[in-house]
Amino acid sequence: MFSFLKVLFQIRSTYVLLLLSLFSISLSIGRVIGTHNEFYLFLYWNLFLAFIPWVVASFIYSRKSKNVFSLVLLILVWLLFFPNAPYLMTDLLHLGKGTAIPLWYDLILLLSYSFTGMLFGFTSLNMIEEKLKALTKLKIYGVISAFLIYLSCFGIYLGRFLRWNSWDLLTNMRSLISDVSDMIVSPFDYPATWEFTFLFGTLLNVMYLGYKEFGVRKG
Predict the structure, then answer these.
(1) Which of 15, 31, 55, 93 is buried most deeply by CB count within 10 Å?
(2) How far apart are CA 138 and CA 39, in angstroms?
(3) Are 154 and 187 in contact (CB under 8 A)?
């Protein structure tokens, strides 16, 4: 555990994510104190769920074992929770709800959680990508990452609009698989599902590309 934490805090983005998380939580605390209303406290839970794939990806990234079976198993666990990170971006739909408070405060609050969730997701995906680069000879990491982002957006649609969550894969698997199967077998019966998945997935893919490419460096 100590060695894992040591590696974790050698990653520069860890400090940024910690700072953003603390800032987001502080805004929530300030809102509760100022309004005596707990409406937005669900963001704590959503932030925790966004934290899980980052922790799993950090563990995968830091471990030295080359056991293929355990690596695949860990990546599947990461993939199960990965949609929870960018899911926070959809909490912007709650803007304007709750008790009276300056709208700009809630905007900053929701943007803070949204941006933190996005970075938890992008950082975890980038670590998985780097781990695969180090262990395999595949040359299509970008394609794999793009596919995983679209897949996660499909999961986000299931969670945001159909109210499924990661735990249902274990507790209510039959009903979840039935719903997903219907959408895949008869895609034209579910236009909103695939429109959301494509548009939000494309947005996140472009943002992830920017996440990896932005910086002052020579081409």
Answers:
(1) 31
(2) 46
(3) no
Alpha helices (H) in 63-171, listed in sequence order? 68-81, 84-87, 103-135, 141-160, 168-171
Burial environment of residue 88 by CB neighbours within 10 A (0 to 12, 13 to 18, 19 or more): buried
Q: pLDDT 10s digit of each residue in the chain, 219 long?
A: 666 777 777 777 899 999 999 999 999 999 999 888 888 999 999 999 999 999 999 999 988 877 888 989 999 999 999 999 999 999 999 998 877 789 999 999 999 999 999 999 999 999 999 998 888 877 888 899 999 999 999 999 999 999 888 778 778 888 989 999 999 999 999 999 999 999 999 999 999 999 998 754 444
Please, are residues 59 and 11 in contact by the beta-carbon 8 Å criterion? no
Whole-number CA gyration radius for the chain: 18
Which residues, 6 or more positions from 42, have their beta carbon under 8 angstroms from its beta carbon? none
First-to-last CA distance in the chain? 39
> Other C-beta atoms within 10 Å of 104: how many?
8
Residues in the chain: 219
Token readout for 5 is 């934490």
Supply 71's token pair.
């690596």
The C-alpha angle 159, 162, 168, rounded to 5 degrees, equals 60
140 phi, psi to nearest 5 deg? -120, 40
Residues 6+ apart with CB under 8 A from 23: 112
